[in-house]
Design the sequence.
């Protein structure tokens, strides 16, 4: 029973190790199953290990250990039900005796025996309902009904009618039970399949309805990036010996250098300037690029974001002030930003950047440009990009178009690419992830 | 192993009552977790917003068990020598100086280098014996014969390496000192780790601990806490205080007032001999509850409504 609950938890995305499972069993053997609240507390202490997991746990616990009562719409069954005479099947007898708890237990047992935890898709629901009914002995109950009808006397017919009605109720109960348990076991699988699918789909083909899921994926990715980034390497922290301090501290040991002290090296925190194209040619992708930027700016302190179309404006404050949805809405519509959403002009964008923010570009800065480099045949201003490259640590260009389209038509990508440390196609989440991985690898 | 304190950990209800006597009001969840932690010999990882009494829980546990509280405050750069043990360099050096003559005596008569080495070896590692060991909190907790409550505070502030290093202690209650050997706990300490979630703890650490999340308490529980911690406060005022603080927490604040701040505020009001909340009184004492200028402004804007709601409820 507990094992099944744990697998349901796992399916919902709580990571539970074998050691924790054993722990949970020991905890339950200490507190027992008698009190629901205590059981919940005990499991909550041993299984979920973070606030998010606790929330999932609450939901799963309530669903799994729902107080399942057999419901019947015929009021008090025992008062109107005919007496069993011993010739019926166990299931029919339970129904006649009105043993609701017994029925609930039988249903649970049947569900375990047919392995309800294996249910994955909603199309399997009716299959499992039938299997559970069968395992509970519904067929023999049907047999009873037939026998009773065949006998034909008054009391038998009444009994048959009663059983037939009870059979309906039984079916409804099993159906409700399966409906209730289904999300426990199926959620993770469907989620997994959807995520895998979404990762591979081109950003421009994504629908609005996938947007929510996308948010989650991107958040996850940024979190991973941040986790890796914030992991501190001890080696990186110690630099050369601090002679002054060492001498001072070792005076106590007659000047013998017992205790070495090291100069601490400052942590290299990322310093990012991100420029994002929001023109019509990249409209469908821009939303996701901005989403990516937003998530980045949430987790990286020193990031400044800009958007450009016909000109370039800084939008760092928008990310800071507003929630995700509102920020994106504002950026795409250009509310109060002074951005002109006319023809895309990379040249003008670079000129604006040079005029306003060149001083912020230091040898530590990484410049991240998200755009398709379609400049409407204007001046590409490659000179400024070269200047930026010289002053910054590196330039990374993520282009939603595949490399075969680079340089075709009004695309200036071929001219920009030589100045970039990294120029990559970035049209799916998978691409984005690869870029992130690449960056992390080259960092070390 | 013969278990100490068994009588104190017989039931979760008993624990709850016992803790209340020490001035800590714990919820059912907390009591059950303590109960399990004792019977399963597991450390407890306590998480929750700042000021909900995570550290207080460990202190109360030490009071309840009448065992010493050994506290290890974590910070960036904390390492073994500060957390576990250190050799007393100075003392070692001093002793070699003092014992110089003695050493000469011992080495007297030894003809060559080899035989003097032999003689020295006979005396073994006298300078690396427990006498020269300076125990730091973790080792000290293991050495307590009567058991102890070990509080590893704000473990999320420590480095990843230190976290990994904690694992040995947490799972087996033993540490290895290369020069001496493995030191086992005489009596397993009761371990609390607290975290403010500035970074995610590693899976390995979480797996070895029971996890306890302490949220802000509900009105009823917080009233109980105030009753225990600030005796002498009138029922009506207590109710108003707690209702008002709950109203405050609902606002969009940079830092919501924690339990400790509610307690402070209750004490302040007690000192001022207040009998009932009023807008002007709150405005004068709001700085006890809120620590940011912006928060004060936000609260100031809604003050009248909140006071009315808090007072009307009584």
Sequence:
């Amino acid at each position: 029973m507990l094992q099944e609950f744990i697998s349901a938890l796992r399916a919902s995305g709580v990571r539970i190790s074998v050691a924790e499972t054993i722990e949970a069993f020991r905890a339950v053997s200490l507190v027992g199953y008698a009190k629901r609240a205590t059981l919940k507390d005990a499991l909550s202490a041993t299984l979920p290990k973070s606030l998010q997991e606790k929330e999932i746990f609450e939901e799963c616990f309530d669903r799994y250990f729902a107080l399942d009562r057999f419901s019947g719409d015929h009021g008090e069954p025992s008062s109107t039900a005919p007496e069993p005479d011993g010739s019926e099947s166990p299931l029919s007898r339970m129904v006649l005796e009105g043993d609701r708890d017994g029925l609930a237990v039988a249903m649970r047992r049947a569900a375990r025996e047919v392995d309800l935890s294996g249910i994955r898709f909603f199309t399997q629901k009716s299959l499992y309902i039938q299997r559970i009914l069968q395992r509970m002995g519904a067929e023999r109950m049907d047999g009873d009904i037939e026998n009773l009808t065949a006998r034909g006397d008054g009391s038998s017919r009444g009994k048959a009618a009663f059983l037939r009605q009870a059979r309906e109720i039984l079916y409804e109960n099993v159906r409700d039970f399966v409906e209730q348990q289904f999300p426990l076991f199926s959620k993770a699988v469907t989620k997994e399949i959807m995520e895998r699918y979404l990762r591979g789909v081109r950003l421009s083909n994504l629908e609005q309805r996938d947007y929510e899921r996308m948010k989650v994926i991107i958040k996850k990715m940024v979190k991973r990036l941040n986790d890796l980034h914030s992991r501190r390497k001890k080696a990186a922290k110690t630099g050369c010996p601090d002679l002054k301090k060492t001498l001072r501290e070792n005076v106590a040991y007659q000047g013998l250098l017992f205790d070495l002290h090291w100069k601490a090296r400052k942590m290299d925190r990322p310093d990012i300037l991100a420029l994002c194209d929001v023109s019509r040619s990249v409209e469908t992708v821009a939303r996701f690029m901005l989403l990516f930027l937003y998530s980045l700016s949430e987790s990286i302190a020193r990031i400044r974001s800009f958007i450009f179309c016909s000109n370039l404006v800084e939008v760092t404050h928008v990310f800071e002030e507003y929630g995700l949805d509102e920020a994106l809405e504002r950026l795409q519509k250009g509310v109060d930003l002074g951005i002109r959403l006319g023809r895309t002009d990379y040249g003008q964008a670079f000129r604006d950047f040079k005029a306003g923010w060149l001083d912020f570009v230091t040898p530590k800065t990484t410049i991240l440009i998200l755009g398709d480099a379609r400049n409407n045949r204007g001046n590409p201003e490659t000179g400024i990009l070269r200047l930026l490259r010289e002053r910054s640590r590196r330039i990374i260009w993520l282009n939603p178009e595949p490399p075969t389209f680079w340089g075709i038509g009004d695309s200036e990508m071929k001219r920009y690419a030589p100045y970039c440390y990294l120029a990559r196609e970035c049209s799916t989440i998978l691409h984005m992830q690869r870029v992130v991985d690449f960056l992390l690898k080259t960092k070390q | 192993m013969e278990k100490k304190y068994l009588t104190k950990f017989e039931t979760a209800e008993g624990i709850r009552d016992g803790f209340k006597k020490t001035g800590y009001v714990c919820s059912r969840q907390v009591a059950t977790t303590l109960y399990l932690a004792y019977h399963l010999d597991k450390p407890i990882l306590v998480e929750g917003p700042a000021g909900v009494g995570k550290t207080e829980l460990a202190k109360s546990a030490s009071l309840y068990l009448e065992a010493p509280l050994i506290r290890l405050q974590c910070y960036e750069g904390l390492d073994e020598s500060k957390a576990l043990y250190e050799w007393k360099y100075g003392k070692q050096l001093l002793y070699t100086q003092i014992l110089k003559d003695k050493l000469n005596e011992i080495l007297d008569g030894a003809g060559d280098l080899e035989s003097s080495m032999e003689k020295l070896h006979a005396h073994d590692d006298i300078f690396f014996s427990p006498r020269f060991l300076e125990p730091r909190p973790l080792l000290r907790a293991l050495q307590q014969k009567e058991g102890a409550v070990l509080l590893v505070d704000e473990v999320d502030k420590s480095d990843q390496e230190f976290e990994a290093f904690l694992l040995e202690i947490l799972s087996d209650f033993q540490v290895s000192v290369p020069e001496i050997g493995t030191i086992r706990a005489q009596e397993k300490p009761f371990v609390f780790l607290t975290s403010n979630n500035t970074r995610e703890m590693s899976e390995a650490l979480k797996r070895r601990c029971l996890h306890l999340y302490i949220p802000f308490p509900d009105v009823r529980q917080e009233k109980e806490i105030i009753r225990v911690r600030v005796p002498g406060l009138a029922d009506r005022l207590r109710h108003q205080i707690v209702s008002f603080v709950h109203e405050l927490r609902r606002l969009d604040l940079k830092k919501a007032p924690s339990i400790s701040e509610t307690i402070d505020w209750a004490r302040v009001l007690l000192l001022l001999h207040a009998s009932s909340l009023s807008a002007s009184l709150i405005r004068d004492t709001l700085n006890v509850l809120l620590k940011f200028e912006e928060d004060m402004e936000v609260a100031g804007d809604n003050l009248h409504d909140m006071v009315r709601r808090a007072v009307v409820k009584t």
